[in-house]
């Protein structure tokens, strides 16, 4: 079984690729949370995987929230994590592992895939140029068979990309980032054509159309899927996202 979260498709691609090779069932974390599915009947010899993007050198808060409630009927034989990030993930896997203790399990392995960056909500941070994004995707695809084999062999490996000052980034910057996450700065411009794409792509069902324009309802993880998928580039996050290139996995 693979539990995953993805806003813009990078992590979904990784989760689906691994599931296709291993025959695992996929569980989309926001859906499981909405349906209050926290108890899973895992066979004793089964493995369990988690896939999600790195948000400020940490696991997304909704993933932490879910894992705190997660319970297994039997202890899985092997527990692995695969993160996607634009560059590096600090000590996110350690923070995640600490949360897993509540579910009675510990990570045996952690894998890291560097994928195109999706974060546009801060000045100076934006998406990669198309060539760089493509290069990252090709490298990630090439890395997949090795990770799949390691999962099949139940190898104990910790393959994170930590970057500089990883503990500080995760424990200090990451912690304050998650308190600061808000959808308040999101707005739509007059380019909006009321197509409803932002409504359908939001993994948290946080957007409705009111008088033909998106309205955000305060349950946001800042995944930026709404910004990236708008066909008219009519969604902005204050001024920070203006002029930044849209990206989602599979775009163009
Ligand atoms: C809110 C937010 C915070 C992010 N923080 C980091 C980070 O700390 N380090 C990093 O390398 N990438 C960071 N990224 C980039 C994503 O981890 C990366 O693009 C990921 O592959 C997106 O996955 P998804 O397409 O499945 O949503 C961040 C992206 C978002 C939206
Ligand atoms: S995706 Fe863009 S154009 Fe479509 S409703 Fe949302 S803001 Fe408007
Ligand atoms: S409102 Fe936008 S940024 Fe927030 S969770 Fe939904 S799609 Fe992601």
Summary tags:
11 strands, binds iron/sulfur cluster, 8 helices, two-stranded parallel ribbon, binds flavin mononucleotide, alpha/beta, five-stranded parallel sheet, Alpha-Beta Plaits, 252 residues, Rossmann fold
How would you portray this structure in words?
This protein has two domains: 2-178, Rossmann fold (3-Layer(aba) Sandwich), CATH 3.40.50; 182-237, 2-Layer Sandwich (Alpha-Beta Plaits), CATH 3.30.70. By secondary structure, it is an alpha/beta fold. The chain contains eight helices and eleven strands. 34% of the residues lie in helices and 18% in strands. The chain is globular and about 55 Å long. One iron/sulfur cluster (SF4) binds at residues 188, 192-198, 214, 230-232, 234-235.
Structural topology:
Elements: E1 2-4, H1 10-22, E2 26-28, H2 29-34, E3 39-40, E4 47-53, H3 61-69, E5 71-72, E6 78-85, H4 92-100, E7 109-114, H5 130-153, H6 166-180, E8 186-188, H7 197-201, E9 207-210, E10 213-216, H8 225-229, E11 235-237
Parallel strand pairs: 1-2, 1-4, 3-5, 4-6, 6-7
Antiparallel strand pairs: 8-11, 9-10
This protein binds flavin mononucleotide and iron/sulfur cluster (SF4) (2 copies).
Q: Span from first to last CA?
A: 31 Å
Report mean pLDDT, rounded to a whole number.
96
Instruction: Tell me what the CATH architecture of the largest domain is.
Output: 3-Layer(aba) Sandwich
Q: Tell me the number of helical segments per DSSP (H or I, 4 or more residues long).
A: 8
Say how many strands there are. 11
The number of domains: 2
Low-confidence stretches: none
Indicate the CATH class of the largest domain: Alpha Beta
Task: Label the structural class.
Answer: alpha/beta
Portion of residues in beta strands equals 15-25%
Shape: globular
The third-level CATH topology of the largest domain is Rossmann fold
Main beta sheet: 5 strands, parallel
Radius of gyration: 18 Å
Compounds present? flavin mononucleotide, iron/sulfur cluster
Task: Give the helix proportion (percent range).
Answer: 25-40%
Task: Walk across the major sheet and give the strand order.
Answer: 2-1-4-6-7
SSE string, helices as H and strands as E = EHEHEEHEEHEHHEHEEHE
